[in-house]
Design brief:
- By secondary structure, this protein is α/β, with parallel strands linked by helices.
- Helix content is 39%, strand content 15%.
- The strands form four sheets. A seven-stranded parallel sheet has the order 3-4-2-5-6-1-7, sandwiched between helices. Strands 10-11-9-12-13-8-14 form a seven-stranded parallel sheet, sandwiched between helices.
- Helix 3 packs across helix 4, helix 6 packs across helix 8 and helix 19 crosses helix 20.
- The protein is globular.
- It starts with 10 loop residues before the first helix and ends with a helix.
- It binds adenosine monophosphate (AMP).
- The site of adenosine monophosphate (AMP) has 13 residues, from helix 3.
Length: 584
């Protein structure tokens, strides 16, 4: 693996990457950045999670001149969500370059502020094809000074029916420009576009050889970024292990997470590339000796790490590629011990997991989301175990005498006395755990989702095409284009299938939109369109926000006092460590 320095990036960008905690380029970055810096056109096969955004964003920042106000780089994305993310990423990477104006431009947002921003000049524009075309038609966006064009997630743009728009935009760009196309898959139509609009492109794909995953239990959990910490602490408490290795992508991420775990009472330390070798070695020694239970590491720092006691590897951030995954999970299940690997998956990373499964040939199984009830049961179990153990250890004569005295003196019986003593012993730790807040359940898998037929009041008469329907619904409601359909366009109405879980958001975001001047009135088929419904309340402002019945403010999470989950596995018993696991 090379370093960012070797890729030929300028000092300011290297400093930024350092500050962001990136340790080394990901495989796609390693192979893409030098080629783009050299001015080559490029086809990159990569998906979300591989670091592809930085792979094109960093070269773009090398190539634009922020002192000129012209739009010099254009990135096309299939969705507004991605446009925002990419614009934000470019903005982050540009921190130390002075002011580089980056403007996200997408449909569904009011156009006037975009016009004003474009008027002032945007050096880098990131947008969805439809809205870019709008601006070209209005003359508000000038592409004549473009130096670089990037097509991000080209296959998704194709699926969403944007391909004509993409071609139009490419044709409107100057011939003397550099073009890069990124796509997770390479269907013929994507390759055709590349052939027509890229000059002698280099093709970069990260080849995966089939590679064996170690024979350990592998499982995954769907979580949002914001849920990760809470879910992690539950897992750590429910499944105490002798040693746990947690992986994060960045140095800063590893340091922060170790700190947060420590603050919650876990014996956790970070291990990353900024730490000197002796410091890292001391972390490993402490892990072996049982002085720390959890190490939060980056891929670079954990290379070659070999600690037999590691029973659990947690991929808190998904790795960049299959090889990294296999290396990570190979840190557990050493020396004939059993091991577990857990993978946290955010919604956008599912494809990446499928890729891992495909190339390792082993399924990663879904894991049950740990609940507060599980935690409560676990705490009670541990408490009981501690009491039983104390009884077995004996040496209680003095206390027995005390309890008996208290009971004799009355008016309490022995059970009450014992309960009071138990409460004192337990301190302020909570044994009963509050019920789960009405959690934002992860979206159900697509297969199990019912398709609801929705209808709209425009059809062949208005000249609407399937691509218009998929493109606009996907964009406005920010849902994947592939989930939309089937579509049936009749003369005056159109029917479109929408997965049940998206119906609400689609109704809200697209319901009142217009097509060629006609209101869509998009609604669940069979329901009266809202415009015609007689509510008898003429003065009610339209579009007023009405909270749903079940909406409840989220209960505030109350952190428990330092509760050392280590209680479950006493360290200072005298069972030799190696015999503990065997036969278990
Ligand atoms: P992407 O595949 O572009 O969506 O990037 C996925 C995530 O990886 C983003 O959160 C980036 O900030 C992060 N990332 C990209 N490159 C690196 C790197 N070289 N080291 C650490 N994190 C990175």
């Amino acid at each position: 693996m090379s370093s960012f320095e070797e890729l030929g990036l300028r000092r300011e960008l290297l400093d930024t990457l350092l500050a962001l905690g990136y340790e080394a380029p990901t495989p796609i970055q390693e192979r893409t950045i030098p080629r783009l810096l050299a001015g080559r056109d490029l086809i990159g096969q990569a998906q979300t999670g591989t670091g592809k955004t930085a792979a094109f964003a960093l070269p773009i920042l090398e190539k634009v001149d922020p002192k000129l106000r012209d739009t010099q780089a254009l990135v096309l994305t299939p969705t507004r969500e991605l446009a925002m993310q990419v614009a934000e990423a470019i903005h982050t990477y540009s921190q130390k370059l002075g002011h580089v104006s980056v403007l996200p431009v997408y449909g569904g947002a009011p156009i006037v502020p975009q016009l004003k921003r474009l008027e002032r000049g945007a050096v880098i524009v990131v947008g969805t094809p439809g809205r870019i075309i709008d601006h070209l038609d209005r003359g508000s966006l000038d592409l004549s000074k473009l130096r670089v064009v990037v097509l991000d997630e080209a296959d998704e743009m194709l699926k969403m029916g944007f391909i004509d728009d993409v071609e139009k935009i490419l044709s409107a760009s100057p011939g003397e420009r550099q073009t890069a196309l990124f796509s997770a898959t390479m269907p013929d139509e994507v390759l055709r576009i590349a052939k027509r609009h890229l000059r002698n492109p280099e093709r970069v794909e990260i080849e995966h050889k089939a590679i064996h995953a170690p024979a350990i239990e592998q499982r995954f959990l769907n979580v949002s970024e914001g849920q990760k910490l809470e879910v992690l602490t539950k897992i750590l408490e429910l499944e105490p292990a002798e040693a746990v290795l947690i992986f994060r992508r960045t140095k800063t991420g590893s340091a922060e997470l170790a700190e947060k775990l420590e603050a919650r009472g876990f014996a956790a330390v970070a291990m990353h590339g900024d730490m000197t070798q002796p410091l890292r070695e001391s972390v490993i020694r402490r892990l072996r000796a049982g002085q720390v239970d959890i190490v939060v590491a980056t891929d670079v720092a954990a290379r070659g790490l070999d600690v037999e006691q590691i029973e659990h590897v947690i991929n808190y951030d998904i790795p960049y590629d299959v090889e990294a995954y296999v290396h990570r999970i190979g840190r557990t299940g050493r020396a004939g011990r059993s091991g577990v690997a857990t993978l946290f998956i955010t919604p956008r990373e599912r494809k990446m997991m499928r890729e891992i499964e495909r190339y390792t040939g082993t399924p990663i199984k879904p894991m049950k989301m740990p609940t507060r009830a599980d935690l409560a049961a676990k705490r009670v179990q541990i408490f009981k175990e501690n009491i039983r153990k104390t009884i077995q250890e004996g040496d209680l004569d003095l206390y027995l005498e005390l309890v008996e005295q208290l009971a004799e003196e009355g008016p309490f019986d022995i059970a009450e006395v014992a309960a009071a003593a138990a409460r004192i012993a337990n301190g302020s730790r909570t044994l009963a755990v509050a019920a789960e807040p009405p959690a934002a359940a992860p979206p159900p898998p697509i297969e199990s989702d019912k398709t609801i037929t929705m209808m709209m009041s425009v059809g062949k008469r208005e000249g609407i095409r399937p691509a218009d329907i998929v493109g606009s619904i996907a964009n406005e409601a920010n849902i994947p284009g592939r989930d939309i359909g089937p579509i049936e366009i009749r003369d005056e109405v159109t029917y479109v299938g929408i997965p049940e879980r998206y119906v609400e958001i689609v109704t809200e975001k697209v319901g009142k939109k217009r097509f060629r001047g006609r209101a869509l009135n998009l609604r669940v088929a069979g329901k009266v369109p809202p415009e015609r419904r007689d509510t008898g309340d003429k003065f009610k402002p339209r579009g007023e926000f009405k909270p749903r019945g079940e909406f409840k403010p989220r209960e505030k999470y109350k952190p428990r006092e330092k509760y050392a989950p280590r209680g479950a596995k006493p360290r200072n018993d005298f069972t030799p460590r190696h015999s503990k696991k065997r036969g278990a």
